[in-house]
Structures are given as structure tokens and as C-alpha cells.
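Sat 14:20. Reprocessing the chain from the morning session after the first attempt stalled halfway. Input below, unchanged.
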Amino acid sequence: MLVAAVLLCTAPAAASSGASANLGPDHTGQADGPVVLVGVPGLLWEDVTPEHTPALWEMAEAGAIGNVSIRTATSRTCPTDGWLSVSAGQRALSDRERFTVCEPAPEPVVDGSGATVPGFGDFVDQNARSVFSAPVGLLGQTVRDQGGLTLAAGPGAALGAADESGRVDHYVDSARDLSQERLQGVSLATVELPELTSLYPAEPDEDDEPQEAKPEDVPEQIREDTLETLDSRLSALVRNLPAGATLMVVGVSMDTGPSQLTVALTGEMTAQGLVGPSAFLASESTRRPGLVTLTDTTVTVLRTLGMDPGGPTGGRAWQTTDRPQPAEEAMVRLVDFNTAAVVVGTAIPGFFSGLVAIQLLIYAAAAYAMHRYSWGERGKRAVVLSVTRVVALAGAAFPVASYLANLIPWWATQFPLLALLASVLAVDALVVALAVAGPWRRTILGPMTVVAGATTLVLFVDLCVGAHLQMNSPTGYSPIVAGRFYGIGNIAFATFATGMLMAVAGISHSLISRGRRRAAVVTTIVVGAASVLIIGWPGLGTDFGGVIALIPGLAVTTMMIAGVRITALRMAAVAVVSVTAISLLAWMDYLRPVEDRSHFGAFAELVVNGDAGTVLARKLGAMLGTLGNWHLTLLAAGALVFLFAVLNRPGRWRIGALQRAYEYAPTLRAGLTGSLVTALVGFAANDSGVAIPALALTVAVPLTLSACVWAVQQSEREPEENPAEPPCVQKA
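Finished this time. C-alpha cells:
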């Protein structure tokens, strides 16, 4: 059954890039007129209403729409960063004195009908040295090299359209100066509408340091009036566009405050106005209807002009897919998606701080409970230990509960942050109830296997259907952070891999206790192979480092369950298998068309071109940088201390609870050891670094604790004259 499930999942992925199977063709093609790219910093879908932005509303009803992930080379996307990223087709940045304050784009120096951006070479050099090696000037240079002309309206727009020397062919100060005559013969026109940005000027504070105004500093009425002005200027601009022009409206950055998902809209101009597929925008970058990235804009512009960027970029051309009707419902979905992203982004620091505190509290309480009461207080001790087991299971179920909580539309409530927390806690309670409700609760690994199995099954199914539960989950990934948009994230991988290895340990214990060791080994291999396949398959898990990390842990677990000795030679063979598997998957993905490739194929191309060193250096730096995350480092250290010090502390039987649990269920050692191996390799192979072992231990240690508590309880029920006698099931 599991093999059939894997085949059903991988078949559509192999045929049509998995999550992108329902996307339509590229929203590109040879344009009959110019491509007009309008950049509106800070424009969100919640700003688009029939009352305040009627022109935008009508265009959204007619055209293709979506959210834009505007993440650039830094987490703070200012207008200059956004326009430079459009210019490069890769995440770019602008150097500024204060990270929290956006500095204006330099005023172009007009020369005839064109202009040159002063200091543009500094932008080019700075980004060429950045971790993304962004080729600033690529968009404008490609248009000029292939016989086109560029026009920019506004300083920011000039950054987007300038060639490698910083020059645009035609320049005007603002959108109000554009006319059909000026657009004649132009291939690409970039237009800046900075009205929202002007609401949040940088003012000096008490120390004479510039500080940007916050969103709450601007009255709602003033913002609404500004939106009306912006809409009227956009409407006037659209009226001046010739028939056959392609209009693209993109929120290239934030006006102030933390990043959010901004507006993307496109359509073709006709004599009757804007027309286009009434659809959601998507791209191979995100493989999610209604979501594109800022760097997708560059490729889309060039493809629409019938031009080729001439090299790899960080984006993919826009595509279209079905959207709900009427348009209002589609826009509500885009607003809700952004709300979820913002809430999760706000909640993540507190979530992980709380996770650390709760896990450490569980460890401390468990250490106290397992040694507190004397043998004369057996009744009270039994209650305390039973409660400890339930609490441990609840701690282990917390990650999977954070995914299942997304089945509840908490983002649509009046208080979404509280609703998210309540949803996670409610689902956690349901998972624990399932773990302790059936007859398996009387066995040492039964409840553990239920929680671990639920974790594995939920993420396995989620990967098959597009990884919707991971998106906007505190332990998943965020479209604002933009580290990943599809497949399995690094934190989810740690949860999934640990859950799978602990689950097969529990299943194997049940089979071996009935004398079916061979069936236990076969089950472990089948489940493990299916897990490796879905994690590594392009379009499903698409996790390069996950395959490298999981195979050694799976091999160790399998050998221990089979009773095979672990040797250096065997582990070397496992390493060869890991490298071979990842190379084969990457090569298969590389053979597909460029627009269909995932992370695997993109990396294989870098290897072929000799450019993989930049990516590896960036990931190594990111991995080492995670050690500075004291939350996760403390969580991992605390879990290891509890596991190997507290649970191994000698008790009444002169051995620790962990060793006692191993006597009752030797496969527990196999699952735990395999999980630790995977966590260690995952730490070295992924840019999430310490997050991998921290989250792996968050699942593995509480599950182990639940087994240890059972072992202590069971040992106390045994006759005192034979306290160290191993259970008879282990003799078999």
C-alpha cells in the first residue's frame, strides 16, 4: 500500500513538475506593444477596494492577479532593493547607512532624452560580490542587446530599466509625464508610483538619527486618500497606453515596516481597456496558485518581449491557473494568505521561545517526577508518572499539531494569532488522545508509535498534495522569508525523518516480539525507501540535503533492527549510496527543461558550469550562522543532556530509565540512534544547521521519555526479588 502511495505521488510529479501540474502555460508571448512595468512600493491586496481604488479593482476583475514575495538579498526590502532585484532577475540589495531606514534611489542625470543613474557601477560591483551574485543591469542590458529601447519614469524605475552602465534610453521624472508619443518605439517602460512611500518619511529622533515612521503613525484616512491619488494616477497612465501594450503592476517593496506579500497584476491593453485571463498568477518558482516572486518579474518581462535573459536567473516566467469567481472572492483569498504569512512571521520568535521553554520545562518536571516520590507513595507516584507520560507525548506531538492546525481557517478570525495558538493546542490534544486511547497504550512503544506514525503520515500525505500544511506554519516555511515555497522544509524534514525512524522502531518491536524479525526489517526498508523517495523526488519533497541526511540514519536503524553489526566499511557503502542517490535525482531533474527544474536540477547546472562553489559557500555560512540562534542551540543542548544524563541516571535497579527501556524494547535504541545520526548529518548538510537536530530532538526525546516512564512503571510492578531480570519477551 505504501509503495502504491509513493507511485501515485511521484507519477504526476515526474510528468509535470509535481505541484505545478495544474498551472497553465507561461503568461508570456510576443507583445504587440511595449511592456509597461508599474512598480508600486507598499501596495497590498487589502488596499484594493471599489471605494478607494476603483481603477485597480476593475483591472483585478479583468486581469491575472497574485501575491508577490518581495524577499531580496536582505530581510528588509526597500524600494531600491526591489528595483535592483528586478534589474538583476536575482535577489539584490542596496548599501545603506541604517538597515531600518530606506534611502531614496539616486536622481538620474539627464542626457538628451535619456539619463544615467549616478553610482550605478557601485550597485553592480556590490551585488556581484554578494552571496547571490546578482547581475544588476541584466534586464536593461538584455533589452538593448536584442534591439529594444528602454524608458523609465522616476528614479526607482531607472534602477530597474538601466543597462550595465546605468543608462536608460528615455527618461521622465514621473508617470504624469508619460504619453503615447513618448512610448512610441519603446520596448520596456518602467514606471514608479511612490505615493505610499511618501507617507513614511525618515525623521530624526532625539539623537538626531533618522527613523522611519511606522504604519500606525499614519492615520487610516490619510492612507485612504493617498490610495485614491495613486489609483487616479494609475488610471491616467493606463489611458495613455497604446493597444497591444502589456501592463504589469507589481508591489516592488514595502513602504515601511516589516515585509508583507504585495500586489501582482497583469493584462493586455485593448481599445476597450485592460483584458486578460481572469486567473491567479503562479510560477515554477513557487508552484502555488496566487503566489509569485519578485525575481519572476524579470523573466516574465523578457519572455513577453520575446527575449531570452541569456543565462540562469532566480525567477521563472509567470503562469496562470484557475481562480475563484467572482474576483472579490479571489482577492479575499490573497488577503487571507498574506494575513496568515504575517501572523506566522510575527509568531515565530515567540513560538520557538515558547517551544524551548516548554521542552526544557518538560525535561525538568520529568526528572523531578521520576525521582521525587518514595516507594511508600506508590499511588501518588503512579499518577505522577502517568501524567509525565502524557505530557511527554504532548510535547512530541507539538510539531505535527502545528501543521494540522492549518486545516482550521484560523487566519480568517478576528484574532488570528490567538486562533492559531488555540488550533495548535486543540490538535495536539487530539493526537495525544489517540495515542493513549487504544489498547496500545499498555505497551512500551504503543503511544510513541502512534504519535510518530501520525507525524510521518501527515507530512507524507501533505507532500503528495502540494505541501499546503507546511506553508504558513510556525514549523514550516513562510512566503515572506522565502527560503522555500514547495517541497519539504528543513524543519519539517527533521520532524518527518525522526517520526518515521521512531515509528518503524515501534512497529519493529511489535513484530520482533512475535518472532517476526525478517518482517520487521522488510517493513523498515520499505517505509524508509518510500520516505527517501518522497523527500528527494523533484516536485514533491525536493530536499537535496534531506536525502543525504536520511539515508545514513535509515541504514543505522535498519542494521540495528536486523541485528547486523555496524562497521566502518558498511557505513562507507551507505555514504556511496547517499551520494549516488542524490546525484541520480539531480541529473534526472537537470535533463528536464530549464523552466521545469527544481532545486536539484538548478544545482546540477551550477555543478556543470563550475558555479556550485558560490551556493555551497552561502549554505555553509548560513549553517554556521545558525549556531548563534540561542533558542535552538539551547533546545538541542538541553535535550541531549536530559537524554544521556538524566534518563541514564542510575535508579533503584542500578541502571538508568533509558537503559531499562532498551531492555524492554531494544528497537527503541535503533530508532533513537538513527534519529541522532540523521540529525547530525542534517546539521552539516543543510543551511538550517542547528534547527535540524533541535527539532529532531524535540520529537525524539519526548517519545523516548514516554517509553522510559512505561519502563519505570513496569519495573515497579515486577517482583522485587528479581528487579534486574530482563523481560521474558526480550529472552525470546
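The CA atoms of residues 82 and 252 lie 5 Å apart.
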